[in-house]
Amino acid sequence: MIVSDKLPAGPLAARLSGYRMEQDALGRSTASVFRLEGEGLPALYLKVEEVATFGELADEAARLGWLKASGLPCPEVIARESDGEHNWLLISALPGSDLASASALTPLVRVELLAAALLDLHRLPIASCPFDHRLERRIATAKARMQAGIVDETDFDATRLGKSAEALFAELESRRPGREDLVVAHGDACLPNFITSEKGFSGYIDCSRLGVADRYQDIALACRSIAHNFGEALVQPFLDRYGMPATDPARLDYYRLLDEFF
């Protein structure tokens, strides 16, 4: 259940009347996420975070609004509230299950749905997207997060466990690719952040990192997520469906390295 001292006390509290709340433990967001259900009421999600320099909820709300205005499916922002100590974001629930959990579908169908969803997103015109996640800005943010001491060194990928954030940041600077193939990227393109139902793809969630970035930002994390959930054998079918049958291993590894800071 939601901790009582995190409950909103303003107008948002009235919107929660009649709902049961259950914490959703899936995902790595710094915000706490609660699913809200009530008899005769539409399912919702409530996110809560402490007010801090690197909060995500304002970013997520802005991106969801932009994505919906761009014609792609995602949760609707219902309400936002802050009391100076906590931020809250109330959003609609999408029908269905995330692609990591949608067991009614075969893994092959799920990776093909992921590829199609990324294609739709990556085809949006970058000139229309106000969110800049090019490497210059993301590396600067990675450095700021490192200096703030919020990079979790215990959560590094297995190949990097035991290294310090400072050592990885030196790699991030020295190995920076010389070019970027820019698209509107999701930013955290893992299977749990894409929802599907029996009617097809339902939409994108956890969009706080959405912005203009190299397409490898999404391809690298998608391939890693597929290998983790379904095994390496389904990475190539995903790439084939996306239209990138051959990839650059160095760029894949670089964007996974960048992800260690977020």
From TrEMBL:
Coiled coil: none annotated. Its EC number is 2.7.1.95. It catalyses: kanamycin A + ATP = kanamycin 3'-phosphate + ADP + H(+). One of its GO terms (molecular function) is kanamycin kinase activity. One of its GO terms (biological process) is response to antibiotic. Signal peptide: none annotated. Keywords: Antibiotic resistance, ATP-binding, Kinase, Magnesium, Metal-binding, Nucleotide-binding, Transferase. Mg(2+) binds at N193, D206. It comes from the Bacteria. It holds the Pfam family APH. Residues 26-253 form the Aminoglycoside phosphotransferase domain. InterPro entries: Aminoglycoside_PTrfase (IPR002575), Kan/Strep_kinase (IPR024165), Kinase-like_dom_sf (IPR011009). The active site is at D188. It is an enzyme of class 2 (transferase). The keyword Nucleotide-binding applies. Belongs to the aminoglycoside phosphotransferase family. This is Aminoglycoside 3'-phosphotransferase.
